[in-house]
Amino acid sequence: DTAVSQTPKYLVTQMGNDKSIKCEQNLGHDTMYWYKQDSKKFLKIMFSYNNKELIINETVPNRFSPKSPDKAHLNLHINSLELGDSAVYFCASSPRGRYEQYFGPGTRLTVT
Amino acid sequence: LAKTTQPISMDSYEGQEVNITCSHNNIATNDYITWYQQFPSQGPRFIIQGYKTKVTNEVASLFIPADRKSSTLSLPRVSLSDTAVYYCLVGEGPGTLTGGGNKLTFGTGTQLKVEL
Question: Would an 8 Å CB–CB cutoff place B40 in contact with chain A?
Fold first, then answer.
């Protein structure tokens, strides 16, 4: 069983489009995260949700918006895509009272 | 924001012990130190976490000096399959995540290459 899953695995789109990446965790965790990993492999947190409440919001463009329909899902919506948005996006989750994070397989976004 | 610094790369041979150090000079009181391993085309995988002194689990040990301004991940008897990128993460610990609080900061990562 996949603990943290993301769809799609690959996403190729053109500048100016709007796209979404979905994330689901079946671990019963309370906190979920979105990370961006650029071509230089730097891993930067973008958002996290705890019990459906946004608790960390890094200085990312407001074109990016996380949406959590329930505790098991944290989707990432991106409007007006730009070339610089090309990266691998990872979803992660962590259990209540613990700090270790469980990462999904990543979504490689390519903006042309 | 607890900025972290790691060596870019390290080389080792099978069977050797590998120590990877992460510097985090402005670590905050509530911050924990967590290490992750990442293989190509995969998400990072949790290895070990600690707050101070020494922590050991079945795959690694984590040494944290009293001033907590650095930490060292120790991998005993590495094998070829340990070839990966290792990240140091510094941020708020369990149960203390708050709105606008400390940000989770990954280090630049250390590419470990293990050879025969």
Answer: no
